[in-house]
Design a protein that fits this description.
about 80% helix, mainly alpha, about 270 residues
């Protein structure tokens, strides 16, 4: 919807701001889940979240703008996916985004467990640290609006990935204080969060009339990265402890940097 109503020059910052506001759900939601679990047990968060989803579904039905089709489409459903898959720049964004989201979810998903296990915090006490780290998602998404407008945005995103990976590695591997861990995790999550809105802006620039398809495919890689990051992070945790989670996140982000350097040009495509 954003891509349909804004010019290419304004989309980048719009996507960054949109992702920043969307990220507030994590900043507010994750700590609230920790508090609700501590106060009322594990069933309370499911009850509250389920009720909110029902309310959201009703509001979505009535509030979301209805768009009438302009006429029969000349491109079939599958042809749009084939069209996007044939664009090398989009494939690069898709692969890099998948790797970065895996690292993001592996880092953020196991941070609370790390604070509980290694620093002795209770479930309720992790609420404030998680909220602080979640602010990094908002800051990173906002920064992405400016990064997306740069000529050398691929290099900037790659550098941010390396910085975020190093921060994640230190968080899970080096013995520092609890608040030092939180501060470093905040830095890491901020850098890691710059990539997703940037890739979203790039996808809408190169997709032509298949913008919805491009956003859907990128969103699928986002969710797949969430599943893969949480699952593989748990597997590495079981195999070698929290330090291996840090190495996994760093490795995924380093690989995304390689993908960006070899698959994405230095300059953005002409508008």
């Amino acid at each position: 919807a954003v891509a349909d109503i804004l010019t290419p020059t304004k989309r980048a910052r719009a996507f960054g701001l949109l992702m920043a506001f969307a990220s507030l759900s994590g900043v507010i939601g994750v700590p609230l889940v920790a508090v609700m679990t501590s106060v009322g047990g594990w069933r309370v968060p499911f009850l509250v979240i389920g009720s909110l989803l029902i309310v959201y579904a009703v509001l979505h039905w009535f509030w979301y703008p209805k768009i009438q089709a302009s006429g029969p489409e000349s491109i079939s459903f599958l042809s749009r996916y084939k069209q996007m898959a044939s664009i090398s720049l989009f494939r690069t964004a898709l692969a890099a985004n998948l790797l970065q989201r895996m690292a993001f979810y592996a880092t953020f998903s196991y941070l609370a467990a790390f604070l509980i296990s290694e620093h002795g915090l209770s479930v309720g006490e992790t609420a404030v640290p998680l909220a602080i780290v979640g602010i990094g998602v908002v800051v990173g998404s906002t920064m992405a609006g400016f990064v997306s407008a740069m000529n050398r945005r691929a290099q900037v995103v790659a550098g941010c990935s390396v910085a975020g990976g190093l921060a994640a590695l230190v968080v899970f591997s080096v013995d520092i204080t609890a608040w030092g861990t939180v501060g470093l995790a905040l830095v890491g999550i901020t850098f890691i969060s710059i990539g997703w809105p940037t890739f979203l802006a790039i996808s809408t620039e190169i997709s032509g009339r298949s913008q919805a398809t491009a956003v859907g495919m990128l969103g699928a890689s986002n969710q797949l990265g969430g599943v893969g990051g949480a699952a593989l992070g748990g597997a590495f945790l079981a195999l070698g402890g929290f330090s291996t989670v840090g190495f996994f996140s760093f490795g995924a982000l380093l690989l995304s940097t390689v993908v960006l350097q070899f698959g994405m040009g230095a300059r953005k495509p002409p508008e």
